[in-house]
Amino acid sequence: MNKSLTLLILLVFTIGKLFSQNTVKTDSLVRLLSLEKDSSKVKLYYQLYEHIKKNDADSALIFLKKGIELANGLSNSNDLRFEGYNQLSEFWFAQGAYDSVKSIAKKALEIDTISKTPLKIWTYNSLGKAYLMTSRHSESIEWFIKALQLAEDTKNFEGIQVLTNNIGNVHWSLNNFDKAELYYKSALEMSYERKLEHNAALALSNLGMVYQAKNRRNEALDSYEKAIAIGRRLDHKADTSIYLQNLGDLYLEVNEYDKAYSALTEANQISNLISDKTGMIFTLIKLAKICTKTNKYNDAIKLLDESFELVKEMNYKIGYEQIYMAYSEVYSKKGDYKKAFENRKLYAVSYTHLTLPTSDLV
After folding, report:
1. C or N: which end of the chain has fewer Cβ atoms within 10 Å?
2. Mind listing the pLDDT tens digit for each residue in 261-270?
3. Please, which residues have CB within 8 angstroms of residue 338's CB and are 6 or more apart in sequence?
4. Which residues contact 121 (CB under 8 A, 6 or more apart)?
């Protein structure tokens, strides 16, 4: 099981509820830019960023930076600046640039804004996630606890649930599976109490990861299937794709390749349906792994080639790392050790270049 990849996917959700989504066509929003000014224009830049970030990260980043730049020049715009920096830190998190996340989130916290603003919960949470993904677990716990305290002070019950879950993620990352299980079960109980079905599904999927790590595969299967059922009922397609990927990983681990293929194919179809290129990338990589394990090397390479085109299109940092490793594995199994070694070297280079220079952040 690819532990770091699974954990990353499940961490990304937490900021998703913070900023509103908009289904208006991008070209309509762009036309509105010429009609707006000051804070309204900043908000429109942020709206454009949210609208296109999944499928055109480079253009989305340009809009976000323009919004932050405009906000920085306005008076009484600290809340807008704070919101922009929070979105920017989440952008770099999705790109795997964790040191950049830390720099931007800390820059956001320097802004003199409302001391108890709910946004700060998620800024602290972003820092906790970034430190977790760079294996600095004690600092990660510190930021998650700080966020949890603010959530408790402001009676932000969903924040409490999310942060309980994320503290469980730290323990899971440290292989403290018993403690992780306790935190995930607590997060699940809170979700049921508050009727937060979306959060319950995430906690169930996390519990499935714990059960899988503890070789309690029947319980893992039950947790994943419950998460999938909730995701389908709520019509949360992106989340359902993630749960199906985890289910596919479980079947892949026990060499049930037909069931793994079925789950991952459905996950890929959902990602295609909603134009979620990140989901498409990871499902194609996982499907390629099935082909590699079943000695269908040419099919595996075709799937990886398709995924690689999406990675290049998005300039997706984490995607490069994962795909070079997958290429290395399939070429090694195929007996082409030269290409296996070349891709292994590319993997090593991509892994060490996941952070970006802070001068390029804003």
Report:
1. N
2. 999 999 999 9
3. none
4. 147, 150, 151, 154, 156, 159, 163
In whole angstroms, what is the distance from residue 183 CA to residue 171 CA?
A: 9
pLDDT of residue 355: 44
Q: Which residue has the tokens 């029947």?
A: 218
- In residues, how long is the chain? 362
Chain segment 6-32, per-residue pLDDT in tens: 443 344 333 333 333 344 466 676 767
Rounded Cα distance between 261 and 265, Å, is 6
Q: Measured between alpha carbons, how far apart are the two ends of the chain, in Å?
A: 36
Q: Enter the tokens of residue 195.
A: 């009727």
State the pTM of this model. Answer: 0.79
Q: How far is CA 83 from CA 45, 61, 74, 118, 336, in A?
A: 12, 14, 14, 11, 49
Continuous segment of H or E residues that includes residue 16: none
* Element housing 41 (H / E): helix 38-52
CA distance 71 to 87: 13
